[in-house]
Amino acid sequence: MLVARDVREGQVLRLDGDLYRVISVTVHTGTAQLTGAVRATVRNLRTGTVTELRWPLDTRLEDVPLERVELQFLYADPEEVVLMHPETFEQFTVPRAALERYLPFLKEGSSVYAWLYEGRPVDLDLPKQVPLVVASCGAGIRGRAEHTMKEAVLENGMTVMVPQFIQPGDTILVDVETGSYIERLWRK
């Protein structure tokens, strides 16, 4: 158990029987007349839905310890995602809705780190930023267009908005959480 004022980003909490990962947290300390509160944005690990919650500072919450293991991503079908332990060859299924936001960043056969709860994967531990190659994009606008953006299709099929100087073959850094362009890493 922990007190709401001690909740930190990345922790997993059990609320109403479901597991939630804390995405962001803000602690508002009280004043002489107002009591303090904790506001947290959490993601349900079963359904993938994001919710905003608020608790008084001294609310007791149940934190859940998870085990981090390396698994291999096999495939995703319309209902579930299949992962395999590379040493024991044990296969795990996770509801697709829970991992939907990660799927564009996964390649069949690639290794991923997963968080296990009671021996079952409940979430993936991907880096916050992923390098991807630009497969195609428009030519861009000539002249003074430093602040305009254009669409680019990446190697994984995602479409992101990029600056005008990005060309096909460039490797860019993409934010996993938002799916947005961060910076160009190198040019092919």
Automatic annotation (TrEMBL):
First and last residue of the signal peptide: none
Domain Elongation factor P C-terminal: 130-184
InterPro entries: Elong-fact-P_C (IPR015365), NA-bd_OB-fold (IPR012340), Rib_uL2_dom2 (IPR014722), Transl_elong_fac_P/YeiP (IPR020599), Transl_elong_KOW-like (IPR013185), Transl_elong_P/YeiP_cen (IPR001059), Transl_elong_P/YeiP_CS (IPR013852), Translation_prot_SH3-like_sf (IPR008991)
Domain Translation elongation factor P/YeiP central residues, every copy: 68-122
Keyword Protein biosynthesis included in the entry's annotation: yes
Pfam family, one: Elong-fact-P_C
GO cellular component: cytosol
GO biological process, one term: peptide biosynthetic process
UniProt GO MF annotations: translation elongation factor activity
Protein keywords: Elongation factor, Protein biosynthesis
Family: Belongs to the elongation factor P family.
This protein's name: Elongation factor P
Naturally occurring in which organism (per UniProt): Thermalbibacter longus
